[in-house]
Write a structure and sequence with these properties.
Blueprint lengths: L4 E4 L2 E4 L5 E2 H5 L6 E4 L12 H13 L7 H15 L2 H8 L4 H8 L12 H9 L3 E5 L4 H11 L7 E3 L12 H10 L8 E5 L2 H10 L2 E5 L10 E3 L5 H4 L9
Parallel strand pairs: 4-5, 4-7, 5-6, 7-8, 8-9
Antiparallel strand pairs: 1-2, 2-3
Helix pairs in contact: 2-3, 3-4
C-alpha cells in the first residue's frame, strides 16, 4: 500500500490517508467519470474571485432586505446553510428574477482575478475519463471562467444550477441529476472534486470518490485531500490507469 498503517473496524488507517474505507482498498476501482467544481477548485481561493462574487451577492440582497452590509452577510450565510445557495434562500422569501440575480452576482472583470493555466490544461487533457464541470453557478459564468483559464475545451460538458433544476449542491438530488446527465449508473466509478466539505459529504454517501481541493493534510470525511489540482498525479495516480 506504500504507507504502513493499522486496521480499525471498517477502515485502514495510515499516516498518509487515515480512515480510508477498506472497500476502497480491497476492491480496485477503475473510475469512469470525473466531476469538477468550478469556483475555488479550478483556480485557487487566494485569487479573491469568489470573495468578490459573495460581495455582489450581499449587494443584490439589499434590494430585498433593508439591513447594513455586515448584517446582510450574516443573513446570506444563514441562507447558505439552510438552503444550499444564496439564491435558493432568497427564493424562499422573495420574488427573485433568477436570470437577473445570476447576471448581477457574476458581473465581474474575471481577468483581474484569474489567468490562463496551461499546466492545469495539460493535466486535465491527460485524464482518460469523462470530465464534467459541476457547479452551483450558471453556464455563462462557468464558460467565462473556463475560457480565461484556457480550459474551455477540456470538459465533456457543464452541469450548472439550471441543469439540475436548482437542486444545487449539497442537495443529494443535485448529484443524482448530475449522474443522469453524465450517464453514470454507478457513482462508485465517479470522482468528485470540490473545495467544500459540505458539498462532498452527500456525494460520498452516494458512493462518489471524494477529493477535497485547496487544503493540506487529511480529513476522515473525504477520500483524499489535495492542496491543488496540480498535484493530482501525486495524490491519485490511479486515475491514469484507464485508457479512454
Amino acid at each position: 500500500m506504500g504507507a504502513r498503517g493499522e486496521w480499525a473496524p471498517g477502515y485502514y488507517i495510515s499516516k498518509a490517508y487515515p480512515f480510508i474505507p477498506i472497500s476502497r482498498i480491497i476492491t480496485p476501482v477503475h473510475f469512469e467519470s470525473l466531476y469538477f467544481d468550478l469556483d475555488d477548485t479550478l483556480y485557487p481561493a487566494s485569487s479573491g474571485l469568489w470573495d468578490a462574487i459573495r460581495g455582489r451577492m450581499n449587494i443584490y440582497m439589499q434590494k430585498f432586505i433593508d439591513r447594513p452590509v455586515d448584517e446582510i452577510a450574516k443573513i446570506r450565510q444563514q441562507y447558505l446553510e439552510q438552503y444550499g445557495t444564496t439564491l435558493r434562500g432568497l427564493q424562499a422569501y422573495y420574488e427573485v428574477d433568477t436570470e437577473e440575480y445570476l447576471a448581477f452576482v457574476h458581473d465581474l472583470p474575471l481577468e483581474e482575478f484569474i489567468k490562463p493555466d496551461p499546466q492545469l490544461r495539460q493535466l486535465i487533457l491527460s485524464l482518460p475519463q469523462k470530465r464534467w464541470i459541476f457547479t452551483n453557478s450558471d453556464r455563462n459564468h462557468a464558460s467565462r471562467v473556463l475560457k480565461i483559464l484556457g480550459l474551455d475545451d477540456c470538459f465533456d460538458g457543464i452541469i450548472d444550477i439550471l441543469a439540475v433544476e436548482f437542486a444545487c449542491k449539497p442537495d443529494k438530488a443535485a448529484y443524482q441529476k448530475a449522474l443522469q446527465i453524465g450517464r453514470d449508473d454507478d457513482p462508485q466509478r465517479c470522482v468528485i472534486f470540490d473545495d467544500s466539505l459540505r458539498n462532498l459529504a452527500p456525494a460520498r454517501e452516494l458512493g462518489f470518490f471524494t477529493i477535497l481541493v485547496g487544503k493540506n493534510g487529511s480529513d476522515p470525511q473525504v477520500d483524499r485531500v489535495i492542496p491543488s489540482l496540480h498535484e493530482l498525479t501525486h495524490h491519485l495516480p490511479e486515475l491514469w490507469e484507464k485508457a479512454r
